[in-house]
Amino acid sequence: MSTVLNSPSGSANPATSLSALWAYLLPALDHILKSPSELHNRKAPAIDFGLYAGIHSACYNYFTAQTEHQPASANTNKLAPQKSPHTGSDIYAQLDNYFAEAAREISLNAPIDDIPLVQYIVNSYNRYTLGAQSANRLLNYINRHYVKRAVDEGRGWLNLADVIQALAKDTKEITPEDTREIMAKKIRESRIKELAKWGFLEGQTPEQLAFAESCAEAASSLDRVVPISSLAHRRFRTEVIEPLLIVPKVKATSKPKHSIPKSPTTPNPARPKGRLARALREVLESNNLDAKARLDLASGLAKVLEAVGIPSDHTLRKKLDKYISSSS
Asked: 129 near 161, Cβ under 8 Å?
C-alpha cells in the first residue's frame, strides 16, 4: 500500500519567493512522481489533504504577490495594446526542468537488452503518467492562471503565427468586425485540422477531443505553453523516446574511383536503425514471447508513442499500427 505524504512542519511562508515555493512543492512532486506505486490501482501515491490545500493556497498567494509587485507600465497611451506580464512563467519553467530531469533519470536507467527495454519504457511511462496526471490536478491553479492566459495570448500548442499570416493575405477591404469573425473561423479550422492528425474527427466525444489535444500539446515545441500533464509528457518524448529513435551515423568507407556500386542482394537492404526500432523488431520477431505478450507490448508501446506526441506517420508508429491491426 502506498504511503500518504503529510504536510511538512514549520511556519515559513512558501509564497515569499520562487525558491521557497519550490522547496514546498518538491517533496510532493517527488512523492507522486517517483515513489513506488501499484500500477494496477491506476493511482499515483496520495498526499495528505492538508498538504494538497496548502499547495493550492501557496500557489494562489505566490501568483497574487507577483501580480501586486508588477511595475506599472510606462506606456501612458491608453489606446496602445498592453502586454500582460507573464506571471507564473518562473514556476512553470521550474516544473519543465523538473520533468526533464525526471525523464532523463528514466532514460539513464534503461536496460541494454531489446525486449527488456520495451518493457521498461511501457512500465516507466505508465508510472510516470500517473504522476503527471496527479501533478496536473495538484497544480491546477497554475493551469488556470498561467497556462490558460498563455493559450489565450497565442502561446499555446497551436501556432497562430501562420493563421495570422494567411489571414493578412486573404483579408482586403473588410471591417475589423469581419476580421475578428474570420480570425475565429481560421483558428477553429486550423485547430480541427491539427487535431485530425491525432485521430480526432468533428462530432466525436469530448473525451476523444481532450485526448487528441493532449497528444498535440505533447508534440509541440518546447517554447509552447501547455498544461502541466502535457508538459510532463512532452519531456518524456524529448528525454526518453527521441534519443532512442536516433539513427546512428555510419562512417563512409572509401571506394575506388570509377567503381560500379553493387546492387543489394536482398529486397530490403539492411540499414542502421535507432535503438527503439531494433528493440521493437526483436519484440515482434522473438520466439521468447508468446503471441499475447507480444501484442500487449506492441499495444503498450503504441500508446506511449501516441501520448507523448510521436506523429502517426512515423515509421515506428505505422509498423506498430500494422502489427496490432493484423493481430486483433
From this structure: no
| pLDDT at res. 73 | 45
Cα-Cα-Cα-Cα dihedral of 113, 104, 40, 38, to 10°?
110
- What lies within 8 Å, CB to CB, of 164 at 6+ separation is 183
Summarised one tens digit per residue, pLDDT across range 149-204 is 999 888 999 877 767 766 666 655 555 665 677 777 888 888 899 999 999 998 89
| Of the candidates 312, 248, 302, 309, the residue with the CA atom closest to the CA atom of residue 280 | 302
Count of C-beta atoms within a 10 Å radius of residue 94: 15
Whole-prediction pTM = 0.85
The DSSP line for 211-280 is HHHHHHHHHS-TTS---HHHHHHHHHIIIIIHHHHPPPPPPPPP--TTPPPPPPSSSS------HHHHHH
Provide the pLDDT for residue 52: 92
Determine contact, residues 309/215, Cβ cutoff 8 Å.
yes
Residues of the chain predicted below pLDDT 50: 1, 72-84, 267, 269
Q: Which three cell numbers stand for residue 126?
A: 505508465
Rounded Cα gap, residues 232 and 139, in angstroms: 13
The phi, psi pair for 292, rounded to 5°, reads -65, -45
Q: How many Cβ atoms are within 10 Å of 2's Cβ, its own excluded? A: 15
CA distance 319 to 328: 14
What count of residues does the chain have?
328
pLDDT at 19: 93
| Element holding 186 (H helix, E strand) | helix 176-196
Query: Which DSSP state fits 5?
Result: B
Q: How far is CA 248 from CA 68, 253, 271, in A?
A: 52, 15, 10
Beta bridge partners of 5: 47
Distance between first and last Cα of the chain:
35
